[in-house]
Amino acid sequence: MSLPVAERVIVLGMDGLDPRILERLMDDGRAPAFARLRSNGGYRRLATTTPPQSPVAWSTIATGCNPGHHGVFDFIRRDPHRYLPELSILRPNPRNVLGRRSAMFLPPRQGTAFWNVTSEAGIPTSVIRWPLTLPPEKVTGYMLSGLGVPDLKANLGRYTFYTTRDIPPSEAQRRKGDIIRLPPNAETIHTSIPGPERSTVPMQLRVDRGAHQVTIKLAEQEVTLGERQWSDWVRVKFTMHFVRTVRGLCRFYLNSLASHIELYLSPVQADPRDPAFIISHPDGYAAELAEAIGDYHTLGMPEDTNALMDGGFDADAFLAQCNMVMAERERMLWHELGRLSHGLLAFVFDTTDRIQHVFWRARDPEHPAYDEAFARRHSSVIEDYYCRMDRILGNVLESVGEKTVVIVLSDHGFTSFRRAVHLNTWLVQNGLMVLKEPTAAEEPTLLRNVEWARTRAYALGFSSIYLNLAGREGKGIVSDGDEAAALRRQIADMLVKLADPASGQRVIQRVYTREELYAGPFLEGAPDLVVGFRPGYRASWQTAVGGCGSAPVEDNLEGWGGDHVVDPSHVPGVLAASRAVRAWEARACDAAVSIVRLLGLPGLLRAEGRELFGD
User: Taking the CA of residue 568 as centre, how many other CA atoms within 13 Å lie in the half-sphere pointing to its CB?
Assistant: First the structure.
C-alpha cells in the first residue's frame, strides 16, 4: 500500500523541547495540541545526534546523514595547522577581498538537504530560520537564514554597554561585549555606536535623573527611555572609507539611572530592508518580509544570553527580549502559511532553547547557582514557553486541512548543567598535554601556551578531543595507525573513570571514537574522540576555546544553568506528527527522507534515515 501524497507538509522546528517536560504537560492537559497528535497522529521521542548540539542535529535532520556527510561536528572546529578555534556555524569567505555581498560567506554545512530535493522537483518550498543556512540556498519559494547569521561586525552577536561605572580591566576583558565608559554627573553626553571596520555613528545622550529617563539622539532619530524599558527599533547608518554605507538595526535598554548610567545596546544587525549581506532567497525577500510583518531580528541568535550573563540586563529584560523575538517569528509563520497553497514550509523556532539555558536553574534546587528568589519569580517560565509552543501548534492544526501533514521536530532535550569539566586540565594532569609555563594553565588562550613537541592530545569545542597527529596537525607528534589507535583507547578508558571529587560519581558516561560514529567524505574533519557527559556535567566554556581551569571539575556558577551537550541517550528530542508514525524508533536522520516521501519523492534523497510514516 503506497503512502498517500500530502498536498502540503509543514515542518515546525522547536529547538530543545524535552520530551519529559512535554509529556508531563500533555498528561496534565496543558499541551492539548501535542496530546491531540499523540492520540490521533504520531508521537515519538527522537534519538538525537552525537554530540547533541544544535548545529549538528539540525544539519542531520536536514540532510538525513551523519556528520561525516554534512561536515558539522561541533559548535567549534579547529584549524589543525594553527591549533586555533573557529566557528562551525559561520564561514567568512577569505577570498572575498572586494567585499561583495554575494560572496561574503561560504556554506557551513555540506550535503543535500530535503529542501534541495523538493525544489529540484519543482515543489514550492520555503525554509525560514533553519540553522546553518547562511548563505541562503536557492529554493523554489523563500529562504531566510537562521542560526549563524552574524551582526554587522561579523560577530555572532556582540553587544555594547554604556556606563558611568568603573569596570575593572579584568572584568571588561571577560565580558562578551564592548564597554564604553561615560563621564559621571554629566547631563549631556557625546558618545558613539561602534560599527564595522572601525566606523562609528555619533550619539548624544541627554540624562534627566529627575524624570528617570535618558533621551538618545542619533542623526534624525530621537528616543526617550525610562528605566528598565526597551526601545523600539533604531536605524543606524555607518559610512566606511568615505564611500560605502552599511545600514543596521538595534535596540536600547536602559538598565539603570540610579547611582550609575547603565545603557545596553543590542548587537547591530543587518537591516532586513537593506541588508549588508545576503540573508534571504530571493535577495529581496528579507525586505519584502519586513514590509509585510514589520522590522525583525536578522541575527542568528538574537536572544542575548551574553549580555544577561555579563550583567548587561537582568532576567526580566531577557525574557522581554525573548518575547519580542517570538512575536516576530509568529508573524513570519502566519505570513508564510497564508500563501502556501501547496508544497513545503520548514520553519524553526529556537527561543525555546535559549529560555531553557537561562531559566533551568530555577527548577533545579541542587544547582550551585540556585537562588530561591530567582526560582520563585521564574520557576514557570520554561513550562509557560512549552504551552506557548502548544498554542502555536494548535492554531496551525486548526488552520490546515486533512491533506496537510504537520510535523514537529525538536533537535534534542535538556538537562541540568551543574558542574563544568575542564578537559584540557585533565589532559595536563595526566601527562597528555604539556604547557610551556605552568601558570598558563588558567589562561583562556591555553593552546597558545602548549609545548606541542611534547603534547599528544588537546580538547577544543564542547565535546571534542583531538590527537596531535603527525602530518595532520601543524606540529603533530603522534603517528597515525597503531600508535594513534592505542592512544585513543587509552584516553577513552582513562576519561570514563574521571570522578567528581565533590561527590565521587562518574563524570562521563562514554567516550566515542570518530570511526564508530561517523562515515563519509568529511570524516577527516571529525574529532578523534567525542565525549558523552553524564547529566549535570558539561565541558567548560574554557574548554570550548582551548582553555582550562585550576581543577578538572568545578561548580558552574553561571546563569547558564541548563544544557544538552551530554551523552545523547539522556537528551532525546521530540517527533510529533498529524500522520501516524509507523516506525517504533525515530532518529534525527529519519526526518529528511520521511519529509520528501510525504511529498511523493521517494528515493530522491540519498540518506541514512528510514521512512517514519510508511507501512
Answer: 22
Nearest CA among 4, 2, 7, 17 for reference residue 392:
17
Q: How far is CA 574 from CA 8, 13, 42, 344, in A?
A: 21, 10, 11, 20
Closest CA to 270 of 302, 244, 243, 293: 302
E strands, 15-146, are: 42-47, 76-79, 84-87, 91-92, 105-106, 125-128, 143-144
Instruction: Tell me the per-residue pLDDT of 274-302, one tens digit each, with 9 for 90 and over.
Output: 999 999 999 999 999 999 999 999 999 99
Report which residue type is found at 345.
L
d(CA 486, CA 513): 12
Edge to edge, the sheet with strand 573-577 lists: 280-281, 143-144, 125-128, 343-349, 8-14, 404-410, 573-577, 42-47, 586-587
Distances (CA, A) of 572 to 76, 205, 316, 385, 585: 22, 49, 29, 19, 11
How, if at all, do strands 529-533 and 464-467 pair?
antiparallel
DSSP structure class, residue 55: H
Cell 552599511 maps to which residue? 246
Question: Is the peptide bond preceding residue 135 cis, with omega within 30 degrees of 0?
Answer: yes
Total Cβ atoms within 10 A of residue 427:
25
Largest Cα–Cα distance of the chain, in whole Å? 78
- For residue 439, what are the contacts with CB-CB under 8 A and spacing of at least 6? none
Q: Which three cell numbers stand for residue 585?
A: 524508533
Residues 303-326 pLDDT 10s: 999 999 999 999 999 999 999 999
DSSP 255-302: EE-SSS-EEEE---EE-TTS-SS--EESTTHHHHHHHHH-----SSS-
Class of residue 242 by CB neighbours under 10 A (exposed 0-12, middle 13-18, buried 19+): exposed
CA torsion, ordered 255, 256, 260, 261, to nearest 10 deg: 60
User: Which pTM value belongs to this model?
Assistant: 0.96
Over residues 388-446, the pLDDT tens digits come to 999 999 999 999 988 999 999 999 999 999 999 999 999 999 999 999 876 554 555 56
Provide the grid cell at 512: 566515542
> Alpha helices, DSSP H only, in 301-443?
305-310, 315-337, 351-359, 372-378, 381-399, 423-429
Q: Grid coordinates in use for 493?
A: 578508558
